[in-house]
Amino acid sequence: MSVWIDTHCHLDASEFATDRLAVRARAAQAGVAHCVLPAVCADHFESIRALAHQGGDSYALGIHPLYTPAAKASDLERLDQALSAHRDDPRLVAVGEIGLDHFVPGLDRDRQNFFYIEQLRLAQHHRLPVILHVRRSADALLAALRRIPVTGIAHAFNGSLQQARAFVDLGWRLGFGGTLTYERALQIRRLATELPLSALVLETDAPDMPPHWLYRTAQARAQGQAQGRNEPEQLPAIGAVLAGLRGLAPQALAQATCDNAIAALPRLAGLVTTEDSSR
């Protein structure tokens, strides 16, 4: 069986409250050897750490841009303290999820940028990579990264090919998930096939970003059909779609994306063995 790494999974989300352990067990059975669990706010730091240890996974600590309206400057101190306190924890692999969201209306861009810049500085200080939220904000993110050179994973990347290449030139990997399974997602599919294979990592963003086979239209939902919940066990099927788009065997795609994940988040090297045991 191929081995897969889900580089972005919100296993702590309330959608998994009743069956979290079963969800992780199904993913393991499907070949998902490891999940990276990013925090979204300071109040979640300890619970996300405990969950990663419980499941044999890894975690990142940070303040998500959608949580900046309620965040306080003291939360940055809490982040700094947590990164210091757990600096020897091999399961702490990144600062994240941080970034900028220029899609959701009503968010204060200056406030987002303040938390983004300060968290980049903390990542640089603690010598950790970053898991980055990119939503119609690639140019602004890149401008800061040229001043504060850190690397990591640009999660759910959906910018232009030129922007993607700019991230890659700075040493970043780009995360792809369920969106690439939609035939009409032409830009995402173009990125996933034209960028160097060494630039790609896989993710589910579970419970969000469901692949097409779990999606229900608004009309179907109105008729009572439930929207399928995305889970990390979907990663191999998503990977198979990407493998088909690139003309690769799924096993080769799994190995390459696992290697890329470890290159982006070096502490993963001590946590997961990615070689196919059937060789």
3D architecture notes:
Helices cover 41% and strands 15% of the residues. It is an alpha/beta fold and 279 residues long. The chain has one domain (4-270): TIM Barrel. Strands 1-2-3-4-5-6-7-8 form an 8-stranded parallel β-sheet. The protein is globular, with a radius of gyration of 18 Å.
Feature tags:
41% helix; TIM Barrel; alpha/beta; 8-stranded parallel β-sheet; 15% strand; 8 strands
CATH-scheme architecture? Alpha-Beta Barrel
| Mass-distribution shape | globular
Q: What percent of residues adopt helix (DSSP H or I)?
A: 40-55%
pLDDT average, as an integer? 95
CA(first)-CA(last) distance: 10 Å
Radius of gyration: 18 Å
CATH level 1 class label:
Alpha Beta
Give start-end ranges of low-pLDDT stretches: none
**H/E topology pattern:** EHEHEHEHEHEHEHEHHH
Query: What is the CATH homology-level superfamily?
Result: Metal-dependent hydrolases
Q: Which fold name is given in CATH as the topology?
A: TIM Barrel
Question: What topology, given as strand order, has the largest sheet?
Answer: 1-2-3-4-5-6-7-8
The number of helices is: 10
Number of strands: 8
Structural class: alpha/beta
Give the percentage of residues in beta strands: 5-15%
User: How many strands, what sense, and barrel or not for the largest sheet?
Assistant: 8 strands, parallel
